[in-house]
Design brief:
elongated; mainly beta; three-stranded antiparallel β-sheet; 258 residues
Length: 258
C-alpha cells in the first residue's frame, strides 16, 4: 500500500519556512507485511501474469466448495459442487499446489456427477469422498467412493449399490473402518438409517448395527479414541430414546446410555 503524505499550512506566511523545502513524501506499507487473519495475497493470485490462465480476474472454483483437506506436502484437496477451478474443468474434486494454483498432476477425469460434501484422506494417501453423486469418472459409485492419490478411482474399494441418499460426513476408526453418515436409509441394499460402518474394501460392516437409529439425518460424525461414535444432526430420538440433535453410540452401533 502506498500513501501520499503532504505537509502544508492553509495560509502560508514567510515565517512558515521551518517546514523545509521537501513537504511531500510517499509512505509504503510493504506487501508482505500482512496482518494475522488477512487474506494471503500470494495464494492463487488474481490479475497476475504468471498464473494459469494469466491475468485471471476471478480465480478459484466456479461454485461451492464443501470440504478442504490440507496435505503434509503443502498441497490441498478441495471438493464441492464446482465444475471448474481457475477456468480448467474439474468436476467436484481438485488438488491445489501450495501457491493455490491448480495441481494438474491430480486428474479426476470426468470426476463426480453430483456434489461432494465430505472428504477424508486415509493413512495410505487414498481419498474418500461422500456426497450425492451416482458415478465417478463414469463408473457407478452411489454416494461414496475412494480415489487414488492421483485422482483416479480406486477400484479395490467397491461399496456395491452404495447409499440411497447424500453422505454428509465421514470418519475413520483405526486404519480399516469407515463411518459414513447422512440422509440415507440403506447401504448396499441393507437397512441403515443415516449411519453405517464400512470395511476397508467398501463392504458394509454388519457388526455395526444402529438398529432403528436416529429419526433424522446426521450431518457430523466423529470417533473417539475409545471407539465411541459421536453423531450430530437433525434428529430427536435415537433407537426410540430421546436424544436432541446429538448422541453417542457404542462401537457396535447401539446407543450409549451412560
Amino acid at each position: 500500500e502506498d500513501l501520499l503524505v503532504q505537509l502544508f499550512f492553509p495560509n502560508p506566511q514567510p515565517t512558515d519556512k521551518w517546514l523545509g523545502f521537501v513537504n511531500t513524501c510517499v509512505v509504503t506499507i510493504l506487501y508482505d507485511d500482512q496482518a494475522a487473519g488477512a487474506v494471503d495475497r500470494d495464494h492463487n493470485m488474481d490479475n497476475e501474469g504468471t498464473t494459469s490462465p494469466p491475468y485471471n480476474p476471478n480465480p478459484g472454483a466456479n461454485s461451492t466448495v464443501y470440504s478442504v483437506v490440507a496435505l503434509e506436502d503443502g498441497t490441498s484437496l478441495i471438493a464441492g459442487d464446482f465444475t471448474a477451478f481457475n477456468a480448467t474443468p474439474r468436476n467436484r474434486v481438485a488438488r491445489l499446489r501450495a501457491d493455490g494454483q491448480l495441481d494438474r498432476g491430480f486428474d479426476p477425469g470426468d470426476g463426480a456427477d453430483g456434489f461432494v460434501s465430505t472428504m477424508k484422506v486415509d493413512s495410505e494417501g487414498r481419498i474418500l469422498i461422500g456426497g450425492a453423486f451416482s458415478s465417478y469418472n463414469r463408473t457407478t459409485r452411489n454416494g461414496i467412493a475412494r480415489l487414488q492419490s492421483g485422482g483416479a478411482l480406486d477400484l479395490s474399494f467397491d461399496p456395491g449399490v452404495g447409499v440411497n441418499g447424500p453422505v454428509w460426513s465421514m470418519a475413520f476408526s483405526g486404519s480399516d473402518l469407515i463411518y459414513v453418515a447422512g440422509s440415507f436409509d440403506t447401504v448396499n441394499a441393507t437397512n441403515r438409517n443415516y449411519i453405517a460402518r464400512l470395511k476397508s474394501d467398501g463392504n458394509l460392516d454388519s457388526s455395526f448395527d444402529p438398529g432403528v437409529g436416529p429419526d433424522g439425518p446426521i450431518y457430523a460424525v466423529a470417533v473417539a479414541a475409545d471407539g465411541k461414535v459421536y453423531i450430530g444432526g437433525q434428529f430427536s430420538t435415537v433407537n426410540g430414546v430421546s436424544r436432541s440433535c446429538i448422541a453417542r453410540l457404542n462401537s457396535d452401533g447401539s446407543l450409549d446410555m451412560a
